[in-house]
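User: I'm writing a tutorial on reading structure tokens. Could you give me a worked example: one chain, its sequence, then its tokens, then a sentence or two explaining what the tokens reveal?
Assistant: Sure. Here is the example chain.
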Amino acid sequence: MIDTHCHLDLLKEKDREEALKDTRLEYLINVGFDKTTISNAIKFARDYEKVYITIGFHPHEADKVTDEDLDWLKSLAERNSKVRAIGEIGLDFYKNYSDRKKQEDIFRKQIQIAKELGLPVVIHMREAEEKTIRILREEGAYEIGGVMHCFTGSYETMKKAVDMGFFISYSGIITYKNAENLREVVKKTPTSRILLETDSPFLSPQPVRGKPNKPSNIFYTAEVLTKLLPNTSLEDVDRMTSQNAKQIFNLNGVVKKNTITYVINNKLYINLTNKCNLHCVFCQRERERNFWVKGHWVWVDRDPSVDEVIKEIGNPTRYDEIVFCGYGEPTLRFSALKNIAKWVKERGGRVRVDTNGLLFTFLPKEKLKELVGIVDTFSVSLNAQDEETYNKVCRPANPNAFKKVIEFIKEAKRLGFEVIVSAVDYNGVDMEKTEELAKTFGAKWKYRTYEVVG
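And here are its predicted structure tokens:
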């Protein structure tokens, strides 16, 4: 796990030593926010291998900050390779310890320093959502990206920040009993953009609230995140948020590309192909092509062979389920799917196929019978309540695609497969009507949140 925002010099010595020795904490991002803590941060980064730092002047300090101080900050960042961001910087209109116009001026100047150095920014934002986002846009912060530290804002603000290339960092606040609105925002945050932090010694999570916070308490927050995100274990949260942190802070990390199989929540997923016969507007392959799924880069540069897949599976009973799922359509490799599924079932595994349901557009209907007894479940992406919406959202090549999906669902039910029908809550999709349609077929229903993949 990576604590992406802590203040090591403000911790009790025993808590600091515990964090530095805790092997579960791969990296600690230590934050300097004034002259003293910035100097301390430089020292900690020099003395401890696992400590990286961000430095900047907090909005509370704005009235004191001079141009000479900003030159000093820039020089430190240039000379110290473990400085991985400028921050925390931003606006605080809640306590107003500094003049608002001075806060804005120092904020803008530090964004420009970050741009000159090619570093991301770490943003403090309190009671200033609209102005913070406006300044980030006006100053071109989307060129470098950054982190919305200890985010407690609205869904709309989160979405605007993500659209500018920012990561959203959640703290122990998401564990608080009165944070239900924030937890709803967490549920809708793209999983490829979520970070975790403690902000220790502040903001202790609920189980230890009232006590000074420390980096090891990040696991309380991680546990809550597993409950907010579907199909997510603590191991998934660790891998996902750590990989996200390594991206934004340019930390060391080996990325496994050409991912044939990957594990999420003790289910083994098989990436059989990148090919797909849809062009769904919400899919990453049609957008920025960010194929991170809970810390796995889900893409292959070629279709893997049956033997390669079987070798990676090993003992299928180790997993709750073997799932054919990736950014491609697995039924496009029908023979490979059939052979692998048969191998898994013969060894006691359970098989699910996540599909767009367009099998009958390129193979005869009778082919589905060949999967009886070797596939347990089909999870079918319907994604629309009617043909017109389906054509707009999924953009099929086949003009009868919507009818073919429904035909597939009905036939799969008739043959005795378990069928789960899903849809993504993309703009224009009536989720209630789509659910009603799914249930008329006798299928189970799965609501999928846009951007929350995996």
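What the tokens reveal: The two ends are 19 Å apart (CA to CA). The CA atoms of residues 100 and 254 lie 43 Å apart.
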